[in-house]
Amino acid sequence: MEKMLEVRDLRKTFGAVAAVDGISFEVSPGEIVGLLGPNGAGKTTTISMILGILEPSGGEILIEDRGHMNFAAVYAPLPGNLTVAENLRVFGLIYGVENFRERLEELLKQFDLAKYRNTKAGLLSSGEQTRLCLAKAMLNKPQLLLLDEPTASLDPSIAREIRAEIKDFTVRGRGAVLWTSHNMHEVEEVCDRVLFLSHGKILLEGDPKVLPQRHGKKTLEDLFVAVAREPLSL
Amino acid sequence: MNPKRLYAVVLRQFYLMRGSLSRVLPLFAWVTVDIALWGFLTRYLNSVADSGFSFVTTLLGAVLLWDFFMRVMQGVTMAFFEDVWSRNFLNFFASPLTIWDYLGGLVASSIATSSIGLAAMLLLAGLAFGLSFAAYGVMFVPFLLILFIFGIALGVMATALVLRLGPASEWFVWPIPALIAPFAGVFYPVAVLPRWMQLFARVLPPAYVFESMRTIVLHRSPGAWPVLAGAGLAVLYLAAGCWIFARTYRYAVRTGLIARYSAESVS
After folding, report:
1. Distance between CA atoms of A212 and B7, rounded to whole angstroms?
2. Quick check: A194 pLDDT over 80?
């Protein structure tokens, strides 16, 4: 099967500290891969390297089509002093979106932002801002989507809708998603495969529904806690 | 450089300006205050001095050109600071936008904002104080061009400084024109400076502009050499500014500064 993203022996060191220590994985079309791990495990560092805003110390990142990659992260809100439509227009130009007006209407409808079209992004609730970031992430009809805790600030109802959108993106659009989250229920529901990172290395990999039992844990959350506290026991 | 992406950076600035009186007003307000203050001062000096020397074309013209240079530099840095303040670096630099698209957009934004300021200054200085730029002849165009290129160069260097040292270092940027002014001989001939200051003046493009301007006011020809030297130096500064910015950006990508920039965690 073709791969949208292939990471080989990726490394990043800051001085003597190895933030990412020789990880390899791939993401295929139609697949959602969860990148899990405690704070400082190397998830955001990995995503930053894939995005090209952080230079790897070693290894390779192969992306099928960099022009059709996009991202949304809880720590990267869009400029609050521009309206929803203005933000999408600016990023539409940057991502070279064809038929922008049509695409804008589609996204405003898809992410329930039509009524906020002329509202400054900074005046939106955090959930609405997240939806705006996701609309931006979908602007160029990406084939590879990097989502760093995309539902962290959403209420359960909106989070469910967003998960459904992302699921639809992979099932119908054959998009590939690399998803980080600390919400293990969400990961279990959404991800086809998970990678547990600990101290910059991939500790475990597999189906989130099967992985806990394989390691003698009841739930994915129990497994997460074990990875965070006693990685050597696994 | 991709024109659409460059336009996106300019459009982002236009959207900011369009909706904000506090951003539009400074384009006119400070230049108006400066021209009014120096306009009245030169009018007073003309009335008490009996030398036939035109303080309007010398001092007010110098103020106008110096203000233009500052607006150009601040046009670049302010556009950059908007992205610092709105924590927009990740969205920009994790996109297909290249640093050259970005820098091109900052420069184009600066051209727009400084042109507005220049038009306001020319209008006020001409209408209220009788300053005519015909007095400088065709040299007025290269004067503006040299100051524009040097303003862009310093603006780009200043953004590199803030990118390297973090958002708090923006306070290093504001005094830069004030630090240069005494050496550049904006209001007096470079010859009145101590020897060591004159050495600095020789490597500052504005010094050549203001020296030439005063020569023209005294009905003498400055010749082509000072203008060529000023232009050559300005282009060198611009090349150095772009090189420094590219190096700083590369450093920021290598060390993770760009990735962490929005967090204000850099010193």
Report:
1. 51
2. yes
**B11, B83, B91 ranked by CB distance to A76: nearest:** B91
Q: Does the CB of B90 have a partner CB in chain A at under 8 Å?
A: yes
**Interface residue ranges in chain A relative to chain B, Cβ cutoff 8 Å:** 14, 44-45, 48, 51-55, 66-67, 70-71, 73, 75-83, 86, 89-91, 93-96, 120, 136
Model pLDDT, residue B266: 40
Helix, strand or coil for residue B26? helix
Query: pLDDT at position A231, please?
Result: 67
Q: In this structure, are residues B129 and B42 in contact, taking their beta carbons and an 8 Å threshold? A: yes
Query: What pLDDT sits at residue B263?
Result: 45
Tell me, yes or no, if the pTM score tops 0.90. no
Residues 6+ apart with CB under 8 A from A169: A138, A145, A175, A177
Rounded distance, CA B243 to CA A106, Å? 42
Residues of A in contact with B258 (CB under 8 A): 53-54
CATH number of A5-65+143-233: 3.40.50.300
| Number of domains into which chain B is organized | 1
Does position B267 have pLDDT exceeding 50, yes or no?
no
Is the pLDDT confidence value at A186 over 60? yes
User: How distant is the Cα of B131 from the closest Cα of chain A, in angstroms?
Assistant: 39
Q: Is residue B15 within 8 angstroms of chain A, CB to CB? A: yes
Q: DSSP label at A120?
A: B
Sheet holding A58-63, edge to edge: A17-27, A5-14, A58-63
Distance (Å, whole) CA A9 – CA B78: 41
Burial of B17 (0-12, 13-18, 19+ CB in 10 A): middle
Summarize pLDDT for A69-106 with one digit per residue, the tens: 999 988 888 999 899 999 999 999 999 999 999 999 99
Continuous H helices in chain A:
43-51, 84-94, 100-110, 126-138, 156-171, 184-190, 211-214, 220-229
**What is the C-alpha separation between A37 and A185, in angstroms, rounded?**
14
CB pairs under 8 A between A and B: 83
E strands of B110-256, at which residues? none
CA nearest to B249 within chain A: A53
Q: Which ranges in chain A are annotated with CATH 3.40.50.300?
A: 5-65+143-233
Is the Cβ of B97 closer than 8 Å to some Cβ of chain A?
Answer: yes
Residue A23 has pLDDT above 70, yes or no: yes
Q: Which of B95, B100, B248, B261 to mutate to test the interface with A (most CBs of A within 10 A)?
A: B95
Task: Return the H-helix or E-strand segment holding A13.
Answer: strand A5-14
